[in-house]
Amino acid sequence: MNKKIIIVAGEPYSVFSEILFKSIKLKKIKKPFLLICSKKLLIAQMKKLKFNFKINTIEKHKIKKLKLSKNCINILDVKFKFNKVFDKINKNSSKYIEKCFGEGLNVIKNSNAKILINGPVSKKYFLHKKFLGVTEYIAKKSGKKNHEVMLIYNNKLAVSPITTHLPLSEVSKKISTKKIIRNVTTINSFFKYKLKKKAKFAITGLNPHCETIKNFSEEKRIILPAIKKLKKKKINIKGPFSADTLFLRKNVSKFNIVIGMYHDQVLTPMKTLYEFKAINITLGLPFLRITPDHGPNNLMLGKNKSDPTSLIEIFTFLGQISDN
User: N or C: which end of the chain has fewer CB within 10 A?
Assistant: First the structure.
């Protein structure tokens, strides 16, 4: 895999610049990267947080033959007017964030890079109800709408929800046998060819204890047919399991991937088990998109107390991916 790394800083008023500075200072980022953000804001935040790194500005006309310098922060500058170095998240940054993503996707396309990292983004203003999340936004912008697969990854366990940032009342309408098969197949290929691991899947039911008093059972009509078809593809998958006991150590230790039906069903236990030692990966795109598994944390902005572990985990993970 082409490991040229493109980073979109994301929300300008988030802790991302802080965790990036800390990761660099701890020497956890060993490969050069291109950071897409406001150069002026980044330097101002660096000064406020008392870090000091060299900046190398990359001009747009040099993107096709992108060469990144070591021992400095390579920046593609995106202009952004700001009054405060650290401010509350607000709607004024939406156009800036969209422009940063646009530049990032353009660099990916024209430099043949295959890795896009983005800092956390507040969905309140940026997505404005047009997309369920940044995962879906990037999928649409890269021409892969409805092919995206969310994978929350730790070296010991990964989880993937069939539906993402969706209200619970809509979940049962959006799960399907076809979608389960597609998502599991995508993850299985990623484990096999990029991680060189044998995937061992567990899949949850939708209803408590995989039971329902209704005539229509999602477990019988949707999930079990998907499991049968996946087994015919020689994919190692078992279930459906009741989510309330699946994550007990003696149960979950038999698997390395858990497929859930909705976001919090699998992300809540995952974050409880691994905290910041997990990363958010989007599969099914023309490139690998990764982001730290936490939000902008605007309340901690400028306090210099944020934990960089999830970002560090991303760079550790990138060192483990096969180039084939």
Answer: C
CATH for 149-283, options being 3.40.50.920, 3.40.718.10, 1.20.970.10, 4.10.640.10 = 3.40.718.10
177-191 average pLDDT score? 98
153-157 long-range CB contacts below 8 Å, 24 or more apart? 153/278, 153/279, 153/280, 153/281, 153/317, 154/270, 154/273, 154/274, 154/277, 154/278, 154/279, 154/313, 155/317, 155/320, 156/256, 156/274, 157/252, 157/255, 157/256, 157/257, 157/258, 157/270, 157/273, 157/274
1-147+284-324 maps to CATH 3.40.718.10 = yes
Dist CA 321 CA 191 (whole Å): 10
Q: What is the CA radius of gyration of the chain?
A: 20
Domain ranges of the chain: 1-147+284-324, 149-283
Average pLDDT, integer, range 145-159: 95
For residue 39, the model assigns a pLDDT of: 97
